[in-house]
Structures are given as structure tokens and as C-alpha cells.
Amino acid sequence: MASIFSNNQQFEKVQRLFYRLHQELPDKTEQLYEDEASLLVKHKANTEALALLNKVIPLFPDNASLRYERATIYERLDQLALMEKDFRHVLNKDANNVAALNGLGYLLTIRTTRFGEAYTLIRQALELSPEDPSIIDSMGWVLFKLGRIEEAITHLQKAYEQFPDPEVAAHLGEALWVNGKKTEAKGILRENLQNNPDAEEVLDTLRRLNITL
Predict the structure, then answer these.
(1) What is the DSSP-derived secondary structure letter of residue 88?
(2) pLDDT in tens, 192-201
(3) What is the largest distance, in Å, between two alpha-carbon atoms of the chain?
């Protein structure tokens, strides 16, 4: 299990905790399932998360949070049709669900070539939540994929100022590099790598673009 649950005892301890909470708080069952699924997904316990979600989603079929978590797992497992099906289910119930709009739009950007469709979804999410740095980053990256590099850099710089995490740094660094701003790109990537030395997103960008800092 690729997660922080370093051994079976630790994982079983978490399971026992949630089992007890379900017994003690029967009126909170749906929320507890959301919390448990979120924890498993966050720590990349993919098999366990999918088993849980497949069990509970039939009980709460319109729970957007559970559908979002399962879509995340499906993407990790390369089951993109099932990923999209869960996102579409959420959006069919709530066309303005910002998390689903951005989530599906971003994953279409990084896992397919359906960039026009991804742009439409992300644009709608950004209209609904214009200051969310994760959505601004998504917009920057889909613009980059569409070849609109200057616009992409504007969005990615704004996202990085608000939320300088490795993924945003990798996006901004690559956009700057492709645009010929190589010194600036190296500065962003170097700065982020100093703060996050194991940042796989930044390391992958350096390898792909053959950048030496």
C-alpha cells in the first residue's frame, strides 16, 4: 500500500477508529464516510479507498464529495472513462459544482488532448470562483496546452503568488522556459526545489526539459 500507513497495524487502527465512530455517531454516517475516503485518497491508499467508495456510493449516490474522491482514484488507476463518469454524474446534478468543473477540466488537460473541452470547464469554474489559486493554475495550464503561452504565464504567476506549491511551480517554470524566459524559469524551479527537495513535479520538469540548475 503506497501510503503513510506504514504497516497493516496502523491502517487497521484507522479502520477501527472509523468503525467506532460509526457506532457512536450513527447520524453522522455520511460525513464519516466522506472523512474516511478523503483520508485514504490523500495518503494514496488506492485499493482501500476504492473498495470503501464502491461500497458506500450506492448508499449515497448523489454525494458529490464521494464521487469526487472516487474519480481521483480512477484517474490514478488509469480508468479515465470511469473517472469522467463520476464527474459527469456530479455535474448533471449540479452544473455549477466548482470542484467537479475544475477537477474534470484539469484531468482532461493532463490526461487527454481534449483541451478545448477542458478549457470550457475550467473557465466556468473560474467564473464561479475567480480567486481560487488551484483553478487559476488549471486555467494557466490549459492555456499553455492550447499554445496561448503569454496568457498562461499571467495566470500561472498569479497562482504561484497565492499558492507556491511544487505543481504550480512546475507549470510556471515550464511555461517560462518554453517562452524563452529561461533565467526566470530556473529561478522559480530552483526556489521551489530548495523548499521542497523531493518535489517530483519539479524534478520531472527538470528532467523532461533537460534543465540544469
Answers:
(1) H
(2) 999 999 999 9
(3) 60
Residue 22 and residue 32 in contact, taking contact as beta carbons nearer than 8 Å: yes
The dihedral region occupied by 92, where left means phi > 0, alpha psi between -120 and 50, and beta the remainder, is alpha
pLDDT digits 0-9 by tens, 89-105:
999 999 999 999 999 99
- The topology (CATH level 3) of 10-94 is 1.25.40
End-to-end CA distance of the chain: 34
Report long-range pairs for 206-213 (Cβ below 8 Å, ≥24 apart): 209/174, 209/177, 211/177, 211/185, 211/186, 213/186, 213/189
Is pLDDT at 2 greater than 50 in this prediction?
no
Q: Return the C-alpha cell found at 94.
A: 449540479
Q: What is the pTM of this model?
A: 0.88
Angstrom distance (rounded) from CA 51 to CA 11: 14
**Predicted local distance difference test score (pLDDT) of residue 98:** 98
Q: Are 3 and 44 in contact (CB under 8 A)?
A: yes
Domain ranges of the chain: 10-94
| pLDDT higher than threshold 80 for residue 19 | no
Q: Judge whether 104 and 91 are in contact, CB under 8 Å.
A: yes
Contacts of 151 (CB under 8 A, 6+ apart): 143
Give CA–CA dist 59/191, Å, rounded.
46
